[in-house]
Amino acid sequence: MSSLLGRFRLNSLRSRLMLLVALAITPIAIVTVLGGLREREAAIRASEDNLKRLTSLAAANEAQSIERARQILVDLVSVPDLMGDPARCNALLADVLDRNEGYVNFGLIQMNGDVTCSAVPMLHPVNLGDRRHFKRAVSERRFIAGDYVFGRVIRKHTINLTYPVIDRRGQVVAVVFAAMDLAGLDTFVNDINLPPGSILETADSSGLLISRRPDPERWFGQKISPALSAAMRGPHQRAVVVRGEDGVERLHAFARVGPPSLSEYTVTIGVPTGTITEVAREAQLMSLLGLGATTLLALLAAWLAGDKLIVQRVRKLMTTARRIAAGDLDARTGIEYGREEIGRLAEALDEMAETLQKKEAARSLAERELRAADQRKDEFLAMLAHELRNPLAPISTGAHLLKLLHSDNAQITQTCAIIARQVEHMTSLVDDLLDVSRVTRGLVSLSTQVLDLRNVVDDAAEQIRPLITARRHKVVLELPESPASVKGDHKRLVQVVANLLGNATKYTPEGGHISLQLKEEGQDYVLSVTDDGIGMEAGLVARVFDLFTQAERTPDRSQGGLGLGLALAKSLVELHGGSVGARSPGLGKGSTFTVRLPRHAQAGAQAGVQAGPAAAPRPADAPPAGSLRVLVVDDNLDAAHTLNLFLAAAGHDVEIAYCAEDALEVAKVFSPQVCLLDIGLPDMDGNELARRLRRLPQTTASTLVAATGYGRQQDRDAARQAGFDHYMVKPVNTVELSELLAQVAARTEQA
Question: Tell me, what's the pLDDT at 617?
Fold first, then answer.
């Protein structure tokens, strides 16, 4: 009785709508009461809408649970660890299981049906190749909500929800699944009060029960009754009366759990018809006592108050909701809050708008702070590189100058070579640090072309040859006879292979063995670098490609590093659509690093494959093509003087300026043919100095070369826009500088 009275209280939207409907059918209700023959049918019809609405809510609740599982599986497919090392995959799935209630397992099924990865440890091998949900996920290439199963791994009543793992080529390579505990599937029923004797059932496409209240454990996996099965297969527009196996006649409403693409489950709620007619008889008795007065008041309320109490307020809610959806977070309903549904809905809508407004403000503030912090970090890295490169420039130039002036002194020549190697090593560390920063922020753009991986390997081996020679390693290159065509950036791929070879030389004792093998596997080329060095523990193998990760260094290893090379190699390979891997039998047993790159399918002969880089440059000690007038501008006195000595020793006429204003005055008198300009000058930056030099008649045709510690792409772009012809990052490579001056001298002589 209390439930019935609660339904007809006038402080809820539902009761008002039901009242309007009741007023519309009052004449029919009076005829029904007087006739008495259709009393039961009228009561059932009056309950159908509520029952269908309740069934739809139950189906929507289960669909929401399944959709949430589908989203978890979609997110899992995008995680690289899922298809990686099984231990990391198990840990990933176990973490997902811990974070999500209502599930008893997550796992990965290979194409042969073997479960190779599971959140719950498997006591014995499990093969699910015979499961219908697995076969459908592979063939239909979409999310599949499977039928009832009793789990082979976790030994519980479950439904398996599967999603295919599709690689970059569009092939299904595995299936990830979530085993949902059926005990938590229909928790919706716990929040509602069903009349005694009512049942809620959910059946899969085979007619097996995956949910039933009450007594769920007793009914899991049981076949529904034939009468109920026939009703489920029919149209669901109307509720139907079905006699259950317990002999109770119930009014059943049906609803599908989500669209066909989500599941093939059906939910039904059955309420005993005896309970429905009992409530109807009590309502009819009350209606007869006050029929006249109630009818008059109801008609008057519907006419005068219906528009004000319901229609206008709902319109305000709709208008406010549309304004919020359009981005106007200042919108409010203006409706007075109350205990009834519209007032509560208005309060909830206003609270949502206020919360969204606060979150948007916080997000905007956080975004501004993040951008500011990122900008400060970029500026710090650029300044750090500049400050590190500045002292390296005079050291490098001085070493080359000493070697040039004292080439007959073996001790000085050896010392200069040591200095040059250490400067090059320091420069490499700075470049790696900046490269990792750019790659991790997605600021590296690839200049891709079809190229031959054999040429990449040759260039990388040549680049790392001095280190291999110094440590007396025996290196074997196993390359295919035919071109190994891939599409990529030659410079970056050389950097990847050089990093792998350099890593092998660092951790392989002197006189050790290193082998590089390039072979074709399916649609990929696999490049592997194997050494017989110190090897790795299993824990290090799992994180060897992480930033700043290094093996334990012993005092006898003089090669330094920041643990950036392998992380940079991994990021660059992934930018090419490839993958990297590492394995080691254990400490002292060597290591193998692999790079897998997609093979480039090219029709006909490999005419378009890159033949390799240009011919080797001239030696550093080649004589200059001619003498030039060179203006050196740098506020670092050591750098300016060592560069002056080097250029003078090469036969050039050199003038030095330590600030931009002095440089402009010297240029007017000296008329330099080449200007070597630092960017970070005290009075004006080098870009502005370049613009002013271009406007002077004495230097309008001069070759302007930036020699600076700033190496970011944006710095290079700014220099190019300012009028620079060339850009060199300190410490300046004296070989490249000598070649550049020789080219300028040759052009000058031809003119």
Answer: 42
